[in-house]
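Good day; I would like, with your permission, to put a structural problem before you. The record follows directly beneath this note:
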Amino acid sequence: MSENRLKYETSPYLLQHQDNPVHWWAWGPEALAEAKRTGKPILLSVGYAACHWCHVMAHESFEDPETARVMNDLFVNIKVDREERPDIDAIYMGALHRLGEQGGWPLTMFLDSEAKPFWGGTYFPRESRYGRPSFVTVLLRIAEAYQSQPENVAKNTEALVAALKEEASTTDRVEAGPDVPDLVARITRAVDRDHGGINGAPKFPQWNIFWLLWRGAMRFGDEDAKQAVITTLRNICQGGIYDHLGGGFARYSVDPFWLVPHFEKMLYDNALLIDLITEVWRETQDPLFKIRIAETVAWLKREMIGEAGGFAASLDADSEGEEGKFYVWHKKEIVDVLGPEDAAIFGKVYGVTRDGNFSEHAAITASGRIEGPTILNRLESQSFSSDEAEARLSEMRAKLLTRRAGRVRPGWDDKILADWNGLMIAAMSRAAIVFDQPEWLGMAEAAFTCVATKLSAGGDRLYHSYRGGLAKAPATASDYANMIWAALRLYEATSSDRYLSQAQRWAAVLDTHYWDGDSGGYFTAADDTSDVVVRLKSASDDATPSANAIQLSNLITLAAMTGDLTYDDRAAELTRVFSGAVARAPTGHCGLIAAGFDLGRLVQVAVIGEGRSDLQKALTNISVPGAVSFISETGSFTEGSALAGKASIGGKSTAYVCVGPVCGMPVQDAQELRKELLIARS
């Protein structure tokens, strides 16, 4: 007898649906075998725990017995957590795009009994509205077409799968790459000069784009690109997209001003923002950036440490069925917590008014007055005031945070994802050194140990996800690439050979199981991942950097650290594989282009000597994006590295700057080191 099988899963998203009347299956061989046995089409529903519209569709349709009856009668229903199976999500989201539809979640795809896609969409309402047909109408039409038009269905499936395979195998290589200074200038002109971010709305942090702009600003001396990044980060740090009480950044803003966020907090956004803001602080020394990083790390420590020291995936946008309810404030409640005098001061700084700024949630009181909730922000009062005034505001924020702790909390997706942890470990390792925070480094090392042990699939193979004592889901290329990045950053921070050794072993796994031996480049799925209908391969930008872009940077770094030129050879081949794609759509490959800055000229810097010297301060207080830097007491570097054999001179701290295989003369003066670094980055 059919049943809802999601109660046997560990994913918080899947468990949210365990009581639906829908006979859900999790993705896997049993579900696919059921489709083949029955001959029914597959209804594939993909979402994630923090997804607002996923919750809406669940409440409207999946919890409705009549809708569930239609689903159960006509389809084999499979529910996928896109964070647990990003490879599955990527395949069917790619298919949706090839149908000419805009992507998003929930993803609703219809597959034949062989799991090949033939039609799909995103959110469908229970009743017809928003210009969309009702979900039941869609179900009935799809089921009828599947039975009465098998030739058309087969034609669609073959065309979609062929298109996905063709993209993965395309290797049109070109000699001339894009004019990168011109590309940086063109993208900069698309940035909102007043508010930052790419013009228009919604606005996403888009790390790939702004990392390229920052790298271009430093390499080419492009002041406009530099200011575009700084303006963007300042507004993100002061906007409503930032949680001014608890720390941490929401996923995106629905408006052009970074005011009204989609309130979910994702680990990957916060990792990438910590990393970029750290690098920009090194150049600007803007106290805002230092404060926001410290507050966000405090949030991570307080709310986002999961099992065995790994970082949890996300916090939901919704609580009590309402988006943002946990985070917004009515003026009356702030007065109640702070008192009238402090509430007036706080309200002026953080934009608190009786009408609020989250108008769709405004309410009419018994007296007939309209009172709306406020999303706290400092967009109108961005400049910091006196230390005394800021300290007073800090005390007010602490009181409000205490009051907020009594509210019903948003859902916490506490699964440990190898790829997202890799991003956060890399960011925390760098920030720990730049800001001299050993505790942050300890958090990064604990998370690394969690992934390396709890997500181990034997040998140096990894699983993708871990929760409830169970590791599952085959690792993707991003799991290895991001964890290699984490290992290399930890090697920089600690000089421990175990991290460098682990990075090399994971790189070998990528080459063995993910490298396309025919066309080159890394596939998303391994050669022994058995439940995907096609192995995708891409270097284009997404919300997170592509595995091919991150691994390009890793290979360049590994070659410099070890002297093993086979890494350089693979890096050069990787750039050639995607040269045609980059030439056709350079703005869609910002991550890969930025990584390519270091081909043949990676900057390595070492400060050798005891104690925290002026040289160390000079090193951490200037942005040389992409550089590998070491602060070492002994100067013990891997044989083959350009830094091998370098040591302090005369008992004094000594710095060395190497560009590619060529190192400059030893430096013992902080100003001289700064000059050397400025030359090296340009």
